């Protein structure tokens, strides 16, 4: 998992897209699938690239001199949730399918914890990318809110 900050119209962005095998999304809160990787829009000049473990090509991006590219793999823990109702207990976003659906992401808070919320399928399945130091708290909150 790497954080990419680059001007989207720059030559560096074009080189990054070529290496990733897909474009950097420009639509706010969208996700682009590029082979085994997913590129999440975080801001006009910021993306999170999520790839499989051991993705050496992804780590080769760190060598791009004209962009800020940081390995944040150790920074975030992924929690998968399969319940829109559960998330709505602690999240102020409108998660109704007409507003938030597969291929969407947003930086938000759930139970007062900052997360990147990413809906990966219409079932619905969500991935919560949370800082490692808050992961246990959020997992406990989700467990309590679900009644398990």
UniProtKB/TrEMBL annotation:
Pfam families found in the cross-reference section: SoxG (PF04268)
InterPro entries the record matches: SoxG, TrmE/GcvT-like
Signal peptide: none
Matching SUPFAM superfamilies: Folate-binding domain (SSF103025)
Domain of life where this protein originates: Bacteria
The name this protein goes by in its record: Sarcosine oxidase subunit gamma
Biological source species: Kibdelosporangium aridum
């Amino acid at each position: 998992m790497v954080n990419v900050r680059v001007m989207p119209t720059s030559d560096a962005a074009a080189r990054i897209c070529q290496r990733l095998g897909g474009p950097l999304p420009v639509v706010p809160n969208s996700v682009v699938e590029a082979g085994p990787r997913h590129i999440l829009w975080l801001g006009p000049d910021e993306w999170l690239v999520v790839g499989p473990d051991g993705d050496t090509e992804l780590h080769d991006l760190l060598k791009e001199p004209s962009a800020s590219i940081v390995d944040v793999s150790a920074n975030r823990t992924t929690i998968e949730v399969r319940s829109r109702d559960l998330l709505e207990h602690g999240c102020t976003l409108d998660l109704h399918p007409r507003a938030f659906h597969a291929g969407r992401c947003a930086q938000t808070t759930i139970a007062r914890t900052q997360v990147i919320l990413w809906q990966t399928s219409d079932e619905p399945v969500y991935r919560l990318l949370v800082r490692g130091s808050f992961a246990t708290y959020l997992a406990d909150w989700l467990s309590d809110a679900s009644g398990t």
